[in-house]
Description:
Elements: H1 2-23, E1 28-39, H2 40-44, E2 64-67, E3 73-76, H3 81-86, E4 91-99, E5 104-113, E6 119-124, H4 125-142
Parallel strand pairs: 3-5
Antiparallel strand pairs: 1-2, 1-4, 2-3, 4-5, 5-6
Amino acid sequence: MIYRAVIMLTRVHIGWVLVLFILAPTWAVAERIEGRLNGLDCASHGEVCPTDKEDPHVLLERDFVVQTEDGHYYFITNMDWRTKLQYVLSMVRVEGKRSEKLMVIAADEFWVKDNDGEYQLKWSLTMAREAEKQRKLKETGNSR
């Protein structure tokens, strides 16, 4: 009787462990990715486009991705399209949490290389949260 109870509890524990592994989110790894900010359609075809920032094709892009030298590309999941649009075709560095299974990174910081070859911080999660906080304060102040 005790033996059956132990086997049953073992099965229950193994079952829960399996459920946790299946339902657990993909573990993220803190990482830095460097490459050119490129349009998704172009990157998926292994091309660098638009040809310049004034190219009207840029407005048709669904998203912009960081395309590394080896041709891989990474989605930046928590930056809005308009912010990415400002820096299309620029060499960028994204620091954040990258998925081990998917080609995505949740950015903590977004850096853009200037003409001197130095990276300048242009966006951060902290900056975005502060801007959202200020926007909400301004909205509530205007509605009174």
